[in-house]
Amino acid sequence: MILFDYQFKQALPIIDKIEEAGFEAYFVGGSVRDTLLNKPINDVDIATSAKPNEIKGIFPKTIDVGIEHGTVMVLWKDASYEITTFRTESTYQDFRRPDNVEFVRSLKEDLKRRDFTINALAMNRNGEIIDYFNGKKDLENKLIKAVGIPEERFFEDALRMMRGVRFVSQLNFSMDSETEVAIHKNHPLLEKIAVERIQVEFIKLLLGSGRKQGLGLFIRTNLFYYCPGLKDFKKELEEFAKLDCVIENRVVAWTLLSHYLRKTSGNIELFLRDWKCSKKEINQVKSAMNALQHRLKGDFNRQVLYQTGLQIALDVETVMDCLGYPINFEFVHTLYQELPIYSKNDIDVNGNDLQVVLKRKPGKWLGDLMAEIEVTILSGELPNEKSVIIEWVSNNYTNDV
Q1: Are 114 and 45 in contact (CB under 8 A)?
Q2: Which of 22, 55, 325, 331 has its CA 20 to 30 A from that of 168?
Q3: Burial of 155 (0-12, 13-18, 19+ CB in 10 A)
Q4: Whole domain around residue 52: which residue ranges?
Q5: Which of 85-94, 131-140, 380-389 has the lowest mean pLDDT?
Q6: In a domain, 78, yes or no
Q7: Where on the phi/psi map is residue 88: left (φ > 0), alpha (ψ -120 to 50), or beta?
């Protein structure tokens, strides 16, 4: 298995050098899980019995990315690898970070502190799986199950409750009943977690192939109580959870959710700001929501498509599909290609031209006139040709415009 995966093969020299120095080293976590599921992996994490200073002594180029928690980044050829020392953790006063970390030499002790059994797997350089907590069996049974006592895992890091629900959606798995009960019991702990961290898991949940099951669990365990703007919308979330379609990207996800929560152009920005979305994403979703309101009444026209842009318009068409309305991606593409301009910069006259022809100094009139020219070109009433536009302005306006 390991010999056929480029990511693992490329990282083998790291494992070998650590072992040559007399220490243990294993691939751990998500890369091992995803390999067993025949899914592509993005990067590999390595756990080792070597302490951070020992790793720094083995490799010439390292960066201290989280050395207080035992993590050193090793720069090797054209790649970088995070190497983390086996560790155990103490009590968690804030339900997020351990009070202190103790480095150990035991792989089993290290894996014991991980969140779910399917993530507590290790693999040696020969591709042999080390599985102390029946993670392979849970993978086969498509089950998300906490390592050890679920409540202890969630007290260590309350975000693990969201991660568990996210894995249900992302992997299309079920959740172990004892783990679900512990999430339901301890869901108020999510209040201790930064919204930014919750948002990462929530979006992955919405984009998962098992979203319906994941959202059902999210609602059932009351995790939604401690997510921005969702507490009073259980019924709407349950309706949203019934959707049976693929959500392709973040804009589609936020737009669909906002539609079900009956958000308006007046309050959607506040909702997304509470979720700590970027300004760019907020503007994209606002544009999508405005376009959706138009699209629900009929097809796109030139003006709306021009204001929305092609990508957001296609996202809105995807939203319409999810909502069960007739769609026409080809029409959107064709209409967009037929637009005479794609931005104000494409207009064949500028402010200086208008000042000259009307013999006027710049002022508010100039922006108003450019906006009118823009709309008239988009309507097809005025060709986007400088001489024609100048003539149109001369015939329709005086220098008292």
Answers
A1: no
A2: 325
A3: middle
A4: 1-141
A5: 85-94
A6: yes
A7: beta
